[in-house]
UniProtKB/TrEMBL annotation:
Active-site positions on this chain: Y49
Domain of life of the organism encoding this protein: Bacteria
SUPFAM superfamilies to which the protein is assigned, alphabetical: NAD(P)-linked oxidoreductase
Residues annotated as domain NADP-dependent oxidoreductase: 16-263
InterPro entries cross-referenced by the UniProt entry: AKR, Aldo/ket_reductase_CS, NAD(P)_OxRdtase_dom_sf, NADP_OxRdtase_dom
Protein's name according to its UniProt entry: Aldo/keto reductase
Gene Ontology molecular function, alphabetical: oxidoreductase activity, acting on the CH-OH group of donors, NAD or NADP as acceptor
Lineage summary: Bacteria, Bacillati, Bacillota, Clostridia, Lachnospirales
Length: 288
């Protein structure tokens, strides 16, 4: 875990973290504990995920000191606003068994796609998050699923520029406009769903390039994201997959192959968009 990204406030975070969405599906902290033993030291959770308690149990039982692990969480759509996010933050701290977070994010910029007063709601939420940051309750603050229009709303009024924007990012769905905006403004992009689900992992280009470099399709996808300057937060349920995702080896994807991945058709999108109703993606057979 020596390789790090440096945020715009000077804080460093690992290039590879562990995503805890659905990591407590069996009702225990087992998967998260296994991720700690596999070597992960950055864990991404959210109030919506229902894994904060399990993460709190896993890290306190691991024998690690609090400073040896980084914990990020998020305020959900229903927890936005100055007063609501204060309550949400305190609940997260209690569940996570900690008195501070390394990173706290606004999970989505709009409570619903048709919500009209989102600019003020985001600013009210961000105001308190800035207070958390200034008081040392959070080491860095950021956002998730924010597009340039949402980021500009904050940046034109806020004292603290978001340190992170967590986006769906993977081969076939790279959100180039938002990625470029973030990189131009010193905002670190983190990738949720960095493997793009099975659709991307089974794509012929990804499979052939993985064979070329002697790695798994998942490792190829993660390396691609990292070479684009994007931190990755993969999920895994088996210790073997956890170790594979964490230990990518020293291979480098060539510039030509990076362009081949860059120019893949739009592929593997989850159907989530902050300003649209969720789309149920149906995979149809090619008809000729």
């Amino acid at each position: 875990m020596a390789d790090k990204f440096r945020l715009n406030n000077g804080m460093t975070i690992p290039e590879i973290g562990f995503g805890t969405y659905k990591a407590a599906a069996d009702g225990t902290e087992r998967v998260i504990s296994e991720a700690i033993w596999a070597g992960y030291r950055y864990f991404d959770t959210a109030s919506f995920y229902g894994t904060e308690e399990e993460l709190g149990m896993a890290w306190t039982q691991s024998g690690l000191e609090r400073g040896e692990i980084q914990i990020a969480s998020k305020a959900w759509k229903s927890e936005l606003g100055y007063h609501e996010v204060r309550k949400a933050f305190e609940r997260s701290l209690e569940r996570l068994k900690t008195d501070y977070l390394d990173l706290y994010l606004i999970h989505w910029p709009l409570p619903t796609p048709d919500y009209r007063a989102w600019e003020k709601l985001d600013l009210d939420t961000w105001k308190l998050m800035e207070e958390f940051y200034q008081e040392g309750k959070v080491r860095a603050i950021g956002v998730s699923n924010f597009l340039p229009q949402h980021l500009l709303n904050l940046m034109e009024h806020a004292e603290v520029v978001p340190a992170v924007d967590q986006l769906e990012f993977h081969p076939g769905h790279t959100q180039e406009v938002t990625l470029r905006f973030c990189q131009d403004h010193g905002i670190q992009v983190q990738a949720w769903s960095p493997l793009g689900r099975n659709r991307v992992l089974k794509d012929p280009l990804i499979v052939s390039l993985a064979e070329k470099y002697g790695v798994s399709p998942a490792q190829l996808c993660l390396k691609y994201d990292l070479q684009r300057g994007v931190m990755v937060i993969p999920k895994a349920s088996s210790p073997e997959r956890m170790r594979q995702n964490l230990n990518l080896g020293d291979f480098t994807i060539s510039q030509i192959d990076m362009y081949r991945i860059d120019t893949m058709p739009d592929y593997g999108w989850s159907g989530e968009h902050p300003e649209r109703e969720r789309v149920d993606i149906q995979i149809k057979a090619h008809e000729g």
